[in-house]
Design a protein that fits this description.
With 370 residues, the protein is α/β, with parallel strands linked by helices. It is built from twelve helices and 14 strands. It is globular and about 65 Å long. It comes from Sphingomonas ginkgonis.
Length: 370
């Protein structure tokens, strides 16, 4: 693996590295970690790679690695959103597969351009919608697909955070700075940062695409140009109704992603901050608590579990599951649907674009078309 982004002060770059290498099927061997050559070399030292393989640019990495017998086979993109398209396009053009942090691009137009590049290349392109890697998320998907709760009627997905409740971007926070900057984040703020996670999770678990939405987005903190709080009503293809709430100004919240799905005969409830438990409600009033690492978990969830029950697995393991599945794809094995690809990336960008425009224009209910 070669990485673009993830230099000094980055959060997600080290996470990608830890996740990719967890199962010893992937090794980070090169990177263009920063546009500053010195900072890129410094990052290479922290990642413990050969100093000669810490490059000053993606172009330099591609050129040098292409000339090596042991050169990189794919590129992990862990940059701010506005760099996703050029990095992916360059990697694909060089014959390299791509694993990208979400969202796919900064805008819907860019996502369409990227899809064309992916389709033309014939290479693998995948996105780290991390929460689809959790064992009990995959188990919930399997339960719903198998009819365990009957036809889905209602879905509520919420993703509250509180870390942007104050304008910390004005105090020099690097992580906040690019997320509230349209030039780097793209059209959406909160909705593009965590709203796409909630949207992807809803469709992944329910097995139903969203067809219509009604959006109310706001920049609550004075001076912000991008939304930091979002409320979106959803309609699914099978007629089910949904609610999506995403917020980064909810004081006291950390990473409160939660999904509840209600069907004709039962309901499911899963929380990211307590990921090793899934609550299954029955029509007769009974409630079952499903735990990871137990016989109650189906094949999909079991395959994503590494330890016996009672040994907590969380964010890093879920992230690693996506990389393990990606490695299987590169070997010509594995189930492609388990690792989100360009089509789901395009859907997520259509969701952001549609919601932002509908909220801005007061359009009411609008169709979600890709």
């Amino acid at each position: 693996m070669g990485m673009v982004g993830g230099g000094p002060g980055a959060f997600i770059g080290p996470i990608h590295c830890l996740a990719a290498e967890m199962d010893r099927e992937i090794e980070l061997v090169a990177g263009a970690f920063s546009s500053d050559a010195g900072r890129s070399r410094a990052a290479g030292e922290t990642y413990r790679i050969d100093p000669s393989r810490a490059y000053p640019s993606l172009e330099a990495m591609i050129e040098a690695e292409s000339a090596r017998a042991d050169g990189i086979e794919f590129v992990a993109i862990v940059t701010p959103n506005h760099l996703h398209l050029p990095a992916a396009r360059a990697a694909l053009a060089a014959g390299l597969h791509v694993m990208s942090d979400k969202p796919a691009t900064a805008t819907l137009a860019e996502a369409r351009e990227l899809k064309a590049a992916v389709d033309t290349s014939g290479l693998h392109y995948r996105l780290t919608y991390t929460y689809t890697g959790y064992p009990l998320v995959r188990h919930a998907r399997e339960l719903i697909a198998g009819g365990e709760i009957g036809a889905v009627r209602k879905l509520v997905v919420e993703y509250p955070q509180g870390w942007l409740a104050q304008p910390i971007e004005q105090e020099g926070s690097k992580q906040a700075g690019w997320r509230v900057d349209p030039a780097q984040a793209g059209l959406g703020g909160c909705i593009g940062d965590i709203g796409v996670h909630a949207f992807n999770l809803a469709e992944f678990v329910a097995g139903q695409p969203v067809t219509e939405l009604l959006a109310d987005l706001a920049a609550v903190v004075p001076g912000r140009r991008l939304d930091d709080d979002c409320s979106v009503l959803l309609r699914f293809a099978n007629g089910a109704r949904g609610v999506l709430l995403a917020s980064q100004i909810s004081v006291g919240e950390l990473n409160g992603l939660r999904i509840r799905v209600y069907g004709e005969r039962g309901g499911l409830d899963w929380r990211q901050e307590e990921p090793n438990s899934l609550t299954l409600h029955r029509l007769d009033g009974g409630t079952e608590l499903v735990r990871t690492g137990t016989a109650a978990v189906g094949p999909l969830g079991t395959a994503a579990t590494r330890t016996p029950g009672g040994h907590p697995e969380g964010y890093l393991e879920a992230f690693a599951n996506l990389y393990r599945d990606f490695a299987a794809l590169l070997r010509g094995e594995g189930e492609a649907a388990l690792v989100p690809g360009i089509d789901l990336g395009l859907r997520s960008m259509a969701f952001v674009d549609t919601a932002v425009a509908a909220s801005r224009d007061g359009s009411g209910w609008v169709s979600l078309t890709v």
